Amino acid sequence: MTDFFSCAARFFVFRFVVFFLSFILTEMSLLSADETPSGAVAMPPEKQLSIQFVNKIYIPEEIGIIKEVVIPDKDKITELVICIQDAHCNYEAQMNINKIVKLFVEDYGIKLVNVEGSTGVIDTSPFSAFKDRKVKMDFADYFMKQGKITGPEYLSITSDLNFIIFGIENEDLYARNYTAFMNVQEYRDRINAYSTKLLERLNKLKESIFSPELLEVDREVTKFDEKTIDFEVYARFLEETALKYKIDLSPFENFNLQTKARIIEKEIDFKKVEEQREELISRFNTTLQGDKDKLRNIVHQSLAYKLREIDAETYYSFILNAAKENNINMEDLSHIAKYADYLHYYNTIDKMRLLDECGEVERHIKKALYKNPLEAELDHLSRIVSLIRKLFKLEV
């Protein structure tokens, strides 16, 4: 069972990279045969584009989240573009993108992966030609951890799947941007050293100027920024501190949704969820013996869930509604309902807004604790210096 907060933490790392380091994002477009270069294999007839085909696209939540689907003309779909955004040189994110591309190539007939950072066809055959699979896997894993290859290149090296990786950069423009970036790096070590010393001095000033309450909040926020506490600890601290100082949290919809999801998650025994689901299916079999169509539909939905053709929220909502419609007793199957609520809250959260709202809650708390303008100015300077330091260290 995927843990919500471990997934959320990975997403929030990605969110910071999108916000602060958009110039080093890896963004890929997976295109249909209409957009492929010469030599690409067309989409198989059974996978021709249609509204039904697009609606069936599904990505397991542990490797990615579909944020938006845009269909300009539902009556005529001639091209499919799937954009995947990801943190550059992030091993876990690249491994997930490898899995996403593998899914689209195997299950949806995609044959072309367009990538940033290069031009023309990317040929991985010198590496994928090794017959020893373990050597290939170790090689690809090592270089992806080093940030030398991307998820699609990893997949091309380690699998026999037939797809093309094509670099879409304007070579001249890319070279000029790269040169500008490298010129800035000449000053990186000096800026890092200066910003580190400046932060140390600002933190010393905080100890003298901040009130004990403000200093406690600042230290917890710093722990999260430096990744010494996880998102769950950080969010719980914000919630408890906001309540302590009577901060109104009602405007922060996504923050409140994650709180509800976290509370419910603590109440769920995920092993019992599966046991109770199997018991509910058994009760359907007993109750619906006289209605084969209903029983067949439940079996079909259960199989679709097992094959990951539908997501967990859709499936659990379906079986709960079916139980209610057929007057099946659910009093002793409470974990199913709790899990359905958890999935609803989790999937309703706008993950892109959640971290922004956490920052807003943090600022509201600090604003309530400021006792003079000097505290506010010192906190502002500390945030600016910390941001500059992260930018030059390419950290999030």
Please provide a written account of the structure:
By secondary structure, the chain is an alpha+beta fold. It contains 17 helices and 5 strands. It has a 5-stranded mixed β-sheet. The chain starts with a helix and ends with a helix.
Task: List the defining traits of the structure above.
alpha+beta; 62% helix; 396 residues; disordered N terminus; 17 helices; 5-stranded mixed β-sheet
Query: What general outline do the C-alpha atoms trace?
Result: flat
Oligomer: single chain
Count of helical segments?
17
- Catalogue the unreliable spans: 1-42
What topology, given as strand order, has the largest sheet? 2-1-3-5-4
Give the beta-strand count. Answer: 5
User: What sequence of helices (H) and strands (E) makes up the elements?
Assistant: HEHEHEEHHHEHHHHHHHHHHH
Main beta sheet strand tally, sense and closure: 5 strands, mixed
Summarize it.
By secondary structure, this protein is α+β, with helices and mostly antiparallel strands.
How is this fold's topology laid out?
Blueprint: H1 4-20, E1 26-31, H2 51-55, E2 81-86, H3 91-108, E3 112-115, E4 119-121, H4 125-128, H5 133-145, H6 151-158, E5 164-168, H7 171-185, H8 188-209, H9 212-225, H10 231-244, H11 253-267, H12 270-287, H13 292-306, H14 312-325, H15 334-348, H16 351-369, H17 373-393
Parallel strand pairs: 3-5
Antiparallel strand pairs: 1-2, 1-3, 4-5
Helix pairs in contact: 3-6, 5-6, 8-17, 9-10, 9-16, 10-16, 11-15, 11-16, 12-15, 13-14, 14-15
